[in-house]
Amino acid sequence: MEALTVDSVLELMRRGGGRVTEPRRLVVSVLIGSEGHRSADEIAEEVHRSRPDVHLSTVYRTLEDLERLGVVEHVHLGHGPATYHLSTKRHAHLVCNGCGTTLEVEDSMFDRLAERILKGYGFRLDHRHFAMSGLCATCRESASRRSPGGTGAAAR
Fold this sequence. Notes:
Strand content: 15-25%
Shape: globular
Strand order of the largest sheet: 1-3-2
Order of helices and strands: HHEHHEEEEHEH
């Protein structure tokens, strides 16, 4: 998908049968101006800086429409709320259980796993919808220093 602009996304919404309103324009502007992943509440908070009267339900409906149009994807990055990001860069996620750091990795990283799951179970994996969790190098190193001999389960 090519680089998105507010106007190109609003045109997609129009062609998809959606209305283009000022609150929707603001949601799209926040998404395009954002780096990384944002929850619906974070998006709404930023929209409210300009328009405090915009309801959270409007933000959620706009995000649903944008996801249906393929403009945004939502992902679950651990125990918090779903987050949203533009679909222009396909990637998967690794989340550290220790410090919460999220790493974006190439979408193809899980291709072999997805093939094995499909072949073995007939199940098509959507690995962009969730994050794989574990420990980052820093947290593993820290856990290794805390455990006797550096061989604790957390160090692996």
